[in-house]
# Entry
Amino acid sequence: MAEIAELFSLEGKKALVTGASQGLGRAMAEALAGAGAEVVCAGLRPGEAEVTADAIVRAGGRAHALAADLSQRSAVLELAEQAEALTGGLDILVNNAGTIRRAPAADHPLEDWDLVLRVNLDAVFVLSQRIGRGMIARGGGKIINTASLLAFSGGITVPGYTASKHAVAGVTRALANEWARHNINVNAIAPGYMVTDNTEPLRKDAGRTQEITARIPAGRWGQPSDLAGAVIFLASRASDYVNGHILVVDGGWMAR
# Structure
């Protein structure tokens, strides 16, 4: 049994989680820390990720907090530099930070399209490229991207978000193809309908919420904590032969 537990242990590993100040990112950062990793928690504004880092430290873990506006390429690169300086080199990267803008496609502001693509896609590639170089040099690592059910479908009034999540799935597979030979596993988690700030406008629509819930075999929307097992699996030795996979965590939505 000890050997099985060791498969999922992250003792001695160093991780960076973006979008870690709340919601899915906070839950994944806390899960990685609970499995033994030292975690750098990145948020958008100074002080935001400190809440998560402080909670990890109070629980007996090791954590740091950084801030970066991932819509700015220079800030993405600076975040990578700071995270590696704090840890001495990252073993795990969780590209979770994301944003969403809602407007019908015919009237969708182009500035919203640009912002969503910069945060949800460009930052994922730039951070993966920068940190991936270090992983290649050190002989391995784990990169976990946050995709979405909208990596598989079109959605409504979120064209930029949908495009970005389809692209995240593609980048995940592309990097896996190139980096598996370097002992780097690149995979993604596609959360289903989760109770987060991003879905609050949707959840305020009682009719739409009822329709969505009725289609979920589990009979409920997901909680951020539902991603804990998935992120630990993909960050640990247990997933050493898993490459380019999009792991759907959706209560069964995609099975319908």
